[in-house]
Task: structure prediction
Amino acid sequence: MTGWTERSAVLACREALARLSRVDPRAHEAVDKALLRESHVRARETLCTDEHCCRPAVASHVLARSVTLGPLTENGHLVMPRAKNGRIDYPRVGWKRASTFPGFCSHHEQMFHVFESAGSLSTPLHHQLQMFRSATRERWRIERSLSDFQAIETLRMEQIDGLDVSDDEREQLKNALEGPLSALRSMADIQWSYMVHVRNDLRAAINAGRVSKGLLAFSDRVEPNVALSGNTVLTVNGRASPLVFVTMPNAGQRLFLIATLEEEHHWLDGYRRRFASTAETRTDLIRAFQMATDHWFARISWWDSQSHEARSQLSAGLLAI
Ligand SMILES: [Zn+2]
Result:
């Protein structure tokens, strides 16, 4: 579900960076290290995402550790995709550290204990809390991408300015990077604003003790192998609409959660009819979700049983600069 425009911008960006590394390999590595350092500093400085809170954020689990990741864990580990230098690999990760982000302070993190202590997500309130947490994580992820794009642009332009090349080549190197970076920034801006609104709708429903019209939940009894949380943009009747999605093990079943804006709820029924009707369509849906986010975790034995082709298909859907 990654859009074609986004895919081509990522590829163009990668190409521009590869060209730059050929012209200037040593500075290229130094800039990569500087970008990494900067992202570590940002992670340490993150505050709680509650608008009225100034406490530092702790590492929050997007997908509850014991309820969601525990049932998929084998020998304390899960498989997850990792994007590095434009390539995807699938390392094993310890389940205690999987699926964390600096989202909430220890006080606001308490609001999710209601289903963590119950041992399952069994009410619409639990579903909404999960989607609120997922939308918060997606907003954080998009903000991180936006500052990454900013840092890439600043540091790369400085690098290009310092190169011993002709003015023509300098101009070409700059243009090759500026165009796709600006396209990626515009797309991220739109997604960021979608996540803000989906999150606001969910919070309003949670605070009022009602169920959001933009929430869809269904489950089946097939053994779960994957847990994930992400977002994408759907085009329904020519109109773009945000979609936050989660699938996870829940009390031995596969639980599917979808959230959109309340005002966009009109497509949810059709979506349910299309994807929730059989075990096969639900499994296809998980695969589509896996291609739309790199934030997924799978049972090791299931991953090992997947064909080479199935794995390559998933990797082709995931792209990183
Ligand atoms: Zn807080």
Q: What stands out?
A: The chain has eleven helices and eleven strands. Residues 48, 50, 53, 55, 104-105, 107-108 surround zinc ion (CB under 6 Å). The CA atoms of residues 20 and 163 lie 10 Å apart.
